[in-house]
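S.,

Sequence below, as promised.
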Amino acid sequence: MSTTVPRPGARHRRKRLGAGESSGKGKTSGKGHKGQKARSGGSLRLGFEGGQMPLIRRIPKRGFNNAVFTRRFAPVNLNSLDLFSDGAKVDEASLRHVGLVKGEWSGVKILGGGKLKPKNLILEVHAASGSAKSALEAAGAKLTLLKQ
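The prediction came back faster than expected:
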């Protein structure tokens, strides 16, 4: 694989602009004569239509978006709770300390992935799935759901 080379003519050298008339891109360097787009910094913003009311402003606004108010929970599976010793208190701070929760989240949700060994854990989280609740109960853990 390291000995492969492109076919002859497949890779072109970049043409240098303004390097004399006989270079093929001299004088105006492919920008034509005068006008805004021939000038330095003369690029038009996205959606500009020459002064005509742009399409994006002609079309009415519709609806709304509640994405700002959504709550995103950091997922933590049951089998990852085996990191904690018997009788340990498990909350968002302790989960962050062991590296199970990273980044910005609205809270922590315990999911039913994997098996939890019987431990008397004390969990204080924001949410838990149905399967996780029953598995925690069976393992002897105490679950407290925090207000969001």
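The first helix runs from residue 55 to 58.

Coffee later?
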